[in-house]
Amino acid sequence: MSQSRPVKDLTIDNITENVHAINSDCKDPRLRFLLERLVTHLHDFARETRLTTPEWEASIKFLTDVGQICTDVRQEFILLSDILGLSLLVDSIDHPKPEASTEGTVLGPFHTHDAEHSPNGALISHDPDGEPMLVVCSVKDTQGKPVAGVKIDVWETDSKGFYDVQHADRTGPDGRAVVESDEAGMFFFQAIVPVPYPIPNDGPVGRLLGVLNRHPYRPSHFHFMFDKPGFDRLITALYLRGDPYERSDAVFGVKESLVVDLGTVSDVDGLSERYGVSPSMRLLQYDFVLVGEEEVGKLRDEKAREAIRKQGMKGMSVVNGTLVPGDSSQ
């Protein structure tokens, strides 16, 4: 561990360069760059706002509270990232999408890894109070070809707006499943119509929303996560048009291309007979478009080089879509 860079007589103006100097022996160039930018922005924030000691202490206590309420089934830090818009921003940067492909959105804090693998046509929600809904979707690549064998995680709340993990008497997964696209790139299952619901607001994030005079509600939506080797993983959701919180989602997850109209099975000739459901059943349809890993990688590199040019950053290189210090020809 090198101590070759002695700290100068510290002042408000030179503290940042001193921290950079001490951190500069980090062997990982990407980590060194991330810490350099984080320290720069944190220090600039403190100087710009003239941050006080009580405000700093309150911030530390808030983050401590966020960590202490986290459990295996509740991730308050993800919730904090969500309500600050950071989750959507990071997803959009790390998973750039070409035109005509399905956009991503926030994962949210309630995805689990214990969902049962279910055959197409399965009933995934057993809430007797929910309004039955048939979900019929396709999966294609950017060339319009069906993609078979895609593993699709799906999950939603019950009719009261609670995910299964929010119930203390939970004995197993409900309102969630893992299905797979067939040879025609289709997948289908039975669920219930999504409802709007508040994010968990009994903790520090909820208190922050109250101080900011913000509501905690998410619009009605259904979660999907697509995985298949060779394709960029897609985390997305579909939102019901006309929901009262469509334009004020507490976690900034709504994108126009993901807003859908809910139909009825009888709207499509032969659908009731084909899937063996009532003609009056609600219907959710969507055509998902996945992007190949190589295509996303090239697009990520292109966006990174564009960021270098726009920000006038010298001495930077692009490595796997990220910026690292080093000679660059961009």
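That was protein one. Protein two is written in the same sequence-then-structure order:
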Amino acid sequence: MESNTVLKFPNVSKDYISDLKYISEISTVIVSSWDGTLSLYKIIPVSGSYKISLDKQFNVGFSILSCCYSREGIYIGGVQGELTFLDFQAQVFQPIEDNKATSGIIRIIPYYNNFIVGSWDGTLQVIDHVDHSIKLVKIIENAKILTMDSSDEHLVVSTTGNKIKLYKLPLNDMNDGSLIDSVLKYQIRDIKILPDGSGYVIGSIDGRVAVEYFNDPSKQFAFRCHRKKLTDVQFVFPVNSLLFRPNSNTLFTGGADGCVSCWSLTDRRKVRQFNKIDEKSVVKMAGGDRVLFVATSDDSFKTNAIITDDIELQPSSIYLVVLDN
């Protein structure tokens, strides 16, 4: 177990944290939550530590699933397929015209001067950053998009049915991608492309992580993580979030056990086990060279047989973990 300096964010939305983005060039963390709150925090180095302050907070008016920073503002995706843009200069929300999504906008990711949007109904859309118009719409038939990531050359989309949809970028009308089976048996929670673009990493609900390569399947491997072994039973926790340390082959995994682990994919071994963050699940992570941001939320409702309006969840939290080396 490794002890690092941990700072707690102030004024965090109590509801489930749906997205977490660190924008290093403006020293800002963007946080979205299911209660429709979009919060911007300033992260300022002070005397060897950091000062965290709530800079701005907006109520979007719908439950938020995803957000993505642009120099002019922030794209926001909602649980009912809402897609809007927060214009920093005008301080107004602009709904994206011709948005075709009919259910949750689960991920918005930048691609050069455009943004790629994926939703639960299997819709992929490309937004032009200049006029915020929809440039392209593609449909993944009979599938729900769970998560996705992109590099300069590839878009990797995880869907229901334990499938992975691979696209060469840029997307166009003739590019239908290729559909492959995931090497993991259970539902994927997160996916990240390797820093060198040679493959991708997936984490699943059965406490496993797999590393796959685009051009050399023989190099692929998988490992177990986020498990607790007692005398006669082993508890397995979902891997909810994956994050690479910038410009490295160092992978952070965040689990429903409230823990963050650090792995060297080069050496194929665990290099750090951080102290448990809190009693809730790690649901999102973001970070830079010296800082790791960890959002925890109560996701116990995911295993409830029946979800009712009066269910009481523990309030969410966000932490800054100072990385010593």
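The longest strand covers residues 49-59. Keep this in mind for the problem set.
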